Amino acid sequence: MATLELKGISKSFGDVDVIHNVNLSVNDGELVVFVGPSGCGKSTLLRMIAGLESVTEGAIHIEGQVVDHLPPAERGIAMVFQSYALYPHKDVRGNLGFALKHAKVDRDEIDRRVNAAADILGLNDLMERRPRELSGGQRQRVAIGRAIVREPKVFLFDEPLSNLDAALRVHMRVEILKLHQRLGNTMVYVTHDQVEAMTLADRIVVFREGRIEQVGTPLELYRTPANQFVAGFIGSPAMNFLTASSNNEQLSIDGQLLCQCPLPNGPATVGLRPEHLRVDNNGAINGEVQVFEHLGGESFVHLILSDGQTLVARLDGEISCRPGEQMRLGIEPAKCHVFDSEGKRAG
Amino acid sequence: MRLREHLSSVAIHGVLLAWTALALFPLGLILVNSLKTRKAIFNDPMGLPIDKAFSAKGYQSVLSNSDFPLFFTNSLTITCISLFLILLFGAMAAHALSEYRFRGNSLIGIYLIIGIMVPIRLGTVALLNLMVDLNLANTLTALILIYTAQGLPIAIFIFTEFLRSVSHEIKDSARIDGLSEYRIFFEVVVPLVRPVIATVAVFSMIPIWNDLWFPLIISPGEETRTVTLGVQQFIGQYTVNWSAVLASLSVAILPVLVMYIIFSKQLIRGITAGAVKG
Questions:
Q1: Cα–Cα distance measured from residue A258 to residue A250, given in angstroms and rounded to the nearest whole number
Q2: Which of A77, A81, A146 minimises the CB distance to B169?
Q3: Digit-coded pLDDT (tens) for A135-144
Q4: Best residue in A75, A77, A87, A148 to probe B by mutation, most B CBs within 10 Å?
Q5: pLDDT digit string (tens) for A125-136?
Q6: Does position A159 have pLDDT exceeding 50, yes or no?
Q7: Mutate to test the interface with B, among A89, A140, A190 (most CBs of B within 10 A)
Q8: Which of A170, A256, B81, B272 has the most Cβ atoms closer than 10 angstroms to its Cβ?
Q9: CA-to-CA dists, residue A137 to A280, B109, B111, angstroms
């Protein structure tokens, strides 16, 4: 059982605290994605799990054992880096077998494991090539192969797809997902791309400024974000946040009733996902079309409301309109996300 | 437009060719005159070694009638060992400076590099005293130590700049693969900066091979003479055996040339690495 547990982890560089008291447990065979804006400490935390950064406070357990004091090679982890980090002077076979050769693993065993990894990743035809003779996607596969060969308890991925172009990224994302299903290892995956997080993760951990904002399955985060930050981070295009007024537990915009929520009277923030808005002549939201983007199967409408607030709606591809026209949109009350003045979820 | 490009290309090549001729002229003169009789050297310094003017006497006296092979071995020993030490310690120091965060990192960096600005020859007297006290006067060891010290600052300076550009992720990846810090240096970092090593090697080698100052002062003994010092034996107070001087100089060029040819491909890559890295 390769579980990973972080207990009260903190990290400071000099006087700067980058990670504050993080507690998290990752179950055996789970793929957990750390997501957050750049500089939120997610990569630092991953490097701490790998043993490349020291832990200022707290303890890291892998398979129930404290590994804080162990060097990276003895933690039973393997890491895939953003820049691939292949050894340029070794061919693919050399790259795959390097760690094992250093661990003095038997030559036959090295060959067996290297060939097995090459089979999984389809690298058999590339074994004699140097990294510079490979494409980005192939390099990334070699980097993943290098991790597989070590047969680690926990895989760590540090933004492995960021250097690839968009089409290849989608392809490699699927490959990683297949790999996880095939190997069934515990994996921790760091990314700043919420689409990657949504598609890959069993559970997502959202970070902001060195703190965990929310932990949950992708759908939990999508449906019930714990706060305004998570709500804005998960989902594409991002959630619209409008200022509404709360009166007798009724929230309204421009005097039009939107939904009900037990909040004190005064202003409140309502989050509306672009894909939940629809054209509705009786809807609560009325605005002027600023920009209309047609993508074929769907279209994006950018509206400006009478009080100056803006919003984006994702609509059916059949709808068309022109800038300057008035448009009325509605939303089911159950799909409104309401946040209190501190940004916490209220309903 | 075509014509202008053409003209500018011709002009550039003209300047480069002129520069090459200027640089190669003294070398050519040495080579040509080393194959001439003494008389021919003075009567017609520019003339080619043909007919009566030709004589291999210079080479004969250098290769058979003198200790030149010994001097040559001395020079080669000193240069090779100093070069090895400069490259080893220079690259290791630079690796430490560029890879590890520790208190006083930049201060130590400046301390190691400041030698570039202080000519080591200012300390000749002190160095001579030191070597005499250490019983190292008239030994090759003394010269090797001095040349290593002389070459280190510039080597560390160049290495630091290039080692900083080695990806941290590759080193981290090697750490995860279980390599010790020494092995990371020798098996991952060194192969990556081979062109830079060649560059530093050439820059460090030439001043050592050509130096006359320290051999003359620290190790002038018969057994420890270097080529540059050995050439002096053909220069007497009243007569100079020019054929022999020129012949020995010609032979002395050889190892530098050979090493340069070995390193040159890497050297060009090293010099342009920063500029053309995509």
A1: 8
A2: A81
A3: 888 999 999 9
A4: A87
A5: 999 999 888 888
A6: yes
A7: A89
A8: B81
A9: 45, 39, 45
